[in-house]
Amino acid sequence: MITTERIINCVNPTCSHPINFAGSRICANCQTPIVYRHIWAIGENLSKIPVGEIIADRYEVLGSQIWLDQKPGEMPETKDEVADEIIPYLRLYRMRSHLPQVYGFVDSPTESPGKITLLENTPIDESGKLYPSINEVWEEATPVRQVYWLWQILQLWQPLSDVHVEASLFLPNNLRVQGWCVRLIELMNTSRLHTPTTSLQRLAASWQPLVEKAHPSIAEHLQNILRPVLQGTGKLAEISQQLNLLLLSAASEFPLNLTVAGATDIGIEPRQNEDSCFPTNTDSIEDPLLPRVSIVCDGIGGHEGGEVASQLAVQSMKLQMRALLTEVALSSEPVPPNLLQQQIEASLRVINNLICNANNQQKREGTQRMGTTLVMGIQIPQPVGSIMGWDAENSHELYIASIGDSRVYWITRDSCQQLTVDDDVVAREVRSCRSMYRQALQRPDATALTQALGTKEGESLRIDVQRLIIDEDGVLLLCSDGLSDNHLVERSWQDFALPVLNGIMTLEDALYAWIRLANQTNGHDNISLVMTYCRVSPEYIVATPADEESTLEMEEKIVTVPEVEVEVTEEESQITDSSQALLDLDLDLELPEEAPISETTPVSATTQKQNRKGGKSLVRLVGLLVLLLGGISLGLYVWWRYNPRHFQQICRQLPPSLQRVCPGEK
């Protein structure tokens, strides 16, 4: 059936009139936020289904294999037994930042018999479009992001190989990117691809077209890494080590400034606060862990149980991380990621056993045993040689540890991504292949914790430690469920994190404003959150075209480039001589002219926008000329490396006689 009137239902089960027009943000009847759940359909002949058709009286076809669930509040069709073809999705549930999950099934509307498998958590944006493939945005990406995408693919290789779906990584169109994050549309059984080999050599071959178009600063390094693999002699451990060093070198080229703020609040209903966090406004700004370490713990076990456990965990973790940072500082070479992850895991097991021993000494049993959730972020500064040749002090590595249902989010100007997976009954049932995600959510104990620090011996803990490379401005948010309940973070991040990223609101103001909102929405629980603002964009880097309006104020600031002593080569000296000659040139640049505006004449929003765009073009061109007049300065070179596509666009607006002094221009 094809309908011309697009609708979507409210998810509130008590709503008396749940039908809304597609495009609505809140239900017109009960004011509940509308949920848009885009689904990826897997089956035969799906491309023949016309756009607009409604499948099974609930799924609207938006495009080839992309459907919208018009009734997201209702359970999708499931199967009594878990089919073999969906087991990889279930076993890899903890990697949901990168992989989709099975949503349900539906009878095929085509002549092909059988069921269509429906996937959720797929790389589809809010408008129902797939995020770009890695091929589509590769050449526009910075060197560090190119290496970072390859690094993520390599980290997925072994887990996917273990369940025989590593072929999913061979197809560039199946690899989508949402900003920094590599995401897969679907998982494909290796036997479905009729290739002579499915080894690491096959993966390297799929990378070769990307490497050939990689940024010049990393292309040769990547070729050297791939060469032995393509010849059949390279090993996974060797590739991982070499790619990691290249990633750290590329990331370290830019400055990293961290600002952190944290607070805990008792909430409206609770009588005591069992949460603890670091830092708070009572912590000394001289603490050597600041601003690199952030911790949030949510205690369980009642008064003088959960409160004690969470405080003990925070204080113990601070001691452990101080020792780790000291140890890393003494190392003459970068410590490998797997070693750092192992040390963080070992620290958590030590803390677990401290709380566990306290339980045993106090003879606490069952639900009386105290424990705590824990999420932690630690930015580990490792010295590394940058690909530009200087010794950098920070490799931009951020490690995240998680136990329980407190959460970590990474928020940029474009997205808010949950990095952690709750340790609850839902995760246990899905990972053990006993149930699909939507089925497990129907259990009355769905959100019950399955592990926390202190409730059992450390050897039985399943600890999740991830690594994030900071290659763009972002806010790391750690919070207890007093903030994350009811999808509050996903619904409100643009109101609190974006103003911080755009310089409109201080970190502290955003922190306490978020707490006030959480008290209004989730006041039944304690609320703790720690926000770390990570800034990597140099002051002389102007905004990218994708974010022009939100960063207008930043572009209008006076740009200053620090003086840096560099050894000038003969080639650079020639370029400097050429650029010095610009002082005597009469530049004929076609810059947009702004019509004079009378103070009493009203100006429309459209006119203001056009004038601002003209002004921004002038700022960019003048900024480029200033850098050119100074010779092949550090600022000019880094701008080229930081955003090569945008840099070259501006370069092409210069007269031909000046274009040759731009890096990368022939």
Structural summary, described in words:
Helices cover 34% and strands 17% of the residues. The protein contains 19 helices and 23 strands. It has a 6-stranded antiparallel beta sheet, with no helix packed on it. 39% of the residues are buried. Mean pLDDT is 83; it is low at 540-639. The chain is globular. Strand 7 (101-107) and strand 8 (115-120) form a beta hairpin. With 666 residues, the protein is of the alpha+beta class. It starts with 6 loop residues before the first strand and ends in a 7-residue tail after the last helix.
Keywords summarizing the entry:
34% helix, 666 residues, globular, alpha+beta, six-stranded antiparallel β-sheet
Topology:
Layout: E1 7-9, E2 19-21, E3 37-42, E4 54-55, E5 59-63, E6 66-69, H1 87-91, E7 101-107, E8 115-120, H2 134-137, H3 143-162, E9 175-178, E10 181-184, H4 200-212, H5 216-230, H6 236-251, E11 257-265, E12 275-278, E13 293-300, H7 306-330, H8 337-361, E14 371-372, E15 374-380, E16 384-385, E17 391-392, E18 397-403, E19 407-411, E20 416-418, H9 425-431, H10 437-440, E21 464-469, E22 474-479, H11 481-484, H12 488-501, H13 507-522, E23 527-535, H14 552-555, H15 570-580, H16 605-629, H17 634-642, H18 644-651, H19 656-659
Helix pairs in contact: 3-6, 4-5, 5-6, 7-8, 12-13, 17-18
Strands of the widest sheet, in order across it, are 4-5-6-3-8-7
Radius of gyration: 27 Å
Shape: globular
How can the largest sheet be summarized? 6 strands, antiparallel
Summed over residues and divided by their number, the pLDDT gives a mean of: 83
Q: Provide the structure class.
A: alpha+beta
User: How big a fraction of the residues is strand?
Assistant: 15-25%
Number of helical elements: 19
CA-CA gap between termini: 57 Å
By DSSP, the count of extended strands is 23
Low-pLDDT segments, ≥5 res: 540-639
> Which oligomeric state applies?
single chain
